[in-house]
Amino acid sequence: MRPLIAGNWKMHGSLRASVALAESVRAGADDLAAELLVCPPFPYIQAVAMSLLGQPVAVGAQDCHPAVQGAHTGDVAAPMLRDCGATHVILGHSERRAGHGETDVVVKAKGAAAIAAGLTPVICVGETLAQREAGQAEAVVRAQVAGSLPDGFAEAGGIVAYEPVWAIGTGKTPTEADIAAIHAALRQAVGPDTRLLYGGSVKPANAAAILALPHVDGALVGGASLIAEDFLAIARAAG
Ligand code: PGA
């Protein structure tokens, strides 16, 4: 499976900085073994997609609403993202599960909306530190996968990202054995064709070791994706 290195830009940057970052990523994107995806904040998706038109870097969003349209002030529908040039959408990130009360049911509905709009969903799962310390990491992740993946997910090329909550933005990562164990469980749950990304403090220094683990088909990168050089170094580490 061709690896995917996805950048989650979260709520960072400006219009000018986003386009500049996209162009710097694009400049290093030729001849990579990995596919690249960048996910800017909503207002910058169209400009970034325009600057990457026809280039080997895909553009995604960081969320969408489950409805196609309607009276949902402040929300963005999946077809609007597609219209603006996005091909992917991150869903169920822990910052949305925790900060916006998103349940598995909500994430599943968003995933269905994404697929209906022709977007590839990237659905995030991951345990908290308390859950890991209680020995529940695998059970939590299995339950999130069972509850968050919509029908037709595998057929639509849906992607799962394992992001332990305690590893996001902290500089901490699970051991390689722990990542491998969760990814083996995920592989069993989703089947052979679904890409499984690892996310949480992926940096150029640890990328090669993480990306070499079995059933790790790429990375979802937060902080390091804001620096083109670091993001590309991670992509090169994918082989
Ligand atoms: P991080 O974020 O790489 O900054 O830990 C990953 C993510 O939240 O997707």
Quick tags:
8 strands; TIM Barrel; 10 helices; alpha/beta; globular; eight-stranded parallel β-barrel; single chain; 239 residues; 40% helix; binds 2-phosphoglycolic acid
Task: Map the helices and strands.
Layout: E1 4-8, H1 15-27, E2 35-39, H2 45-51, E3 57-61, H3 78-83, E4 88-91, H4 94-99, H5 104-116, E5 120-125, H6 129-133, H7 137-148, E6 159-162, H8 176-190, E7 195-199, H9 204-211, E8 218-221, H10 228-237
Parallel strand pairs: 1-2, 1-8, 2-3, 3-4, 4-5, 5-6, 6-7, 7-8
The structure holds 2-phosphoglycolic acid.
Structure explained in plain terms:
This protein has 239 residues and is α/β, with parallel strands linked by helices. The chain has one domain (4-236): Aldolase class I (TIM Barrel), CATH 3.20.20.70. 40% of the residues lie in helices and 16% in strands. The protein is built from 10 helices and 8 strands. The chain has an 8-stranded parallel barrel, surrounded by 7 helices. Helix 1 (15-27) links the parallel strand 1 (4-8) and strand 2. Helix 1 (15-27) packs parallel to helix 10 (228-237). The longest helix has 15 residues, at 176-190. The radius of gyration is 16 Å and the shape is globular. The mean pLDDT is 98. It binds 2-phosphoglycolic acid.
- Stated plainly, the CATH topology is called TIM Barrel
Tell me the number of strands: 8
The CATH homologous superfamily is termed: Aldolase class I
Tally of domains: 1
Q: Please write the CATH class name.
A: Alpha Beta
| Major sheet characteristics | 8 strands, parallel, barrel
Order of strands, widest sheet: 1-2-3-4-5-6-7-8
CATH architecture: Alpha-Beta Barrel
Bound molecules: 2-phosphoglycolic acid
Low-confidence stretches: none
- Beta-strand portion reads 15-25%
Number of helices: 10
Helical percent range? 25-40%
